[in-house]
Amino acid sequence: MVLEILEEAEKPLSPYDIQRILRQRGKYLNHVTIYRILDLLCRLNLAHKMLSSGGFVKCNLDAVEGCHRFMVCQDCEAIQEFADEGLCQEENELARNLGFHTEHHLSEFSGLCSRCHK
Ligand SMILES: [Zn+2]
Ligand SMILES: [Zn+2]
Ligand SMILES: [Zn+2]
After folding, report:
1. Could you say which residues of the chain have pLDDT below 70?
2. In angstroms, what is the span from residue 85 Cα to ligand 3's centroid?
3. pTM of the prediction?
């Protein structure tokens, strides 16, 4: 049900938003439970936590290689998810040169979507 709510949402949702929507549908879950569910969904790569807003979104990618990342439009707040294995490899190499072993990348691009840029 939480995943369904994330899927229907047009923007990232906070745990409070999710609780409010669940309540409208006649379900009550406390915050700890909602956080646990979100944590699990994120670990399964079914949902992600946005770095900038801290809100949660449903994953929009099928099985692709590379870490899932986001482009966030500053104007209309549209979110585009993407993954690029080559980018991951370049970043791993950069880190290796600095003596760091990378396991995962989190990144978010800020700018304008194609519609707002016109
Ligand atoms: Zn994803
Ligand atoms: Zn935009
Ligand atoms: Zn990566």
Report:
1. none
2. 7
3. 0.89
**107 alpha carbon to ligand 1 midpoint, in Å?**
12
Query: For residues 22-54, b (16+ Cβ closer than 10 Å) or e, as one string?
Result: beeeeeebeeeebeebbeebeeeeebbebeebe
Cα–ligand 2 centroid distance for 72 (angstroms)? 8
C-alpha 18 – ligand 1 centre gap (Å): 19
pLDDT of residue 10: 87
Specify the residue for token string 């986001």.
70
Q: How far is the CA of 76 from the centre of ligand 3 (A)?
A: 27
Please give the domain boundaries of the chain with CATH numbers for all domains.
Answer: 1-59 (1.10.10.10), 61-118 (3.30.1490.190)
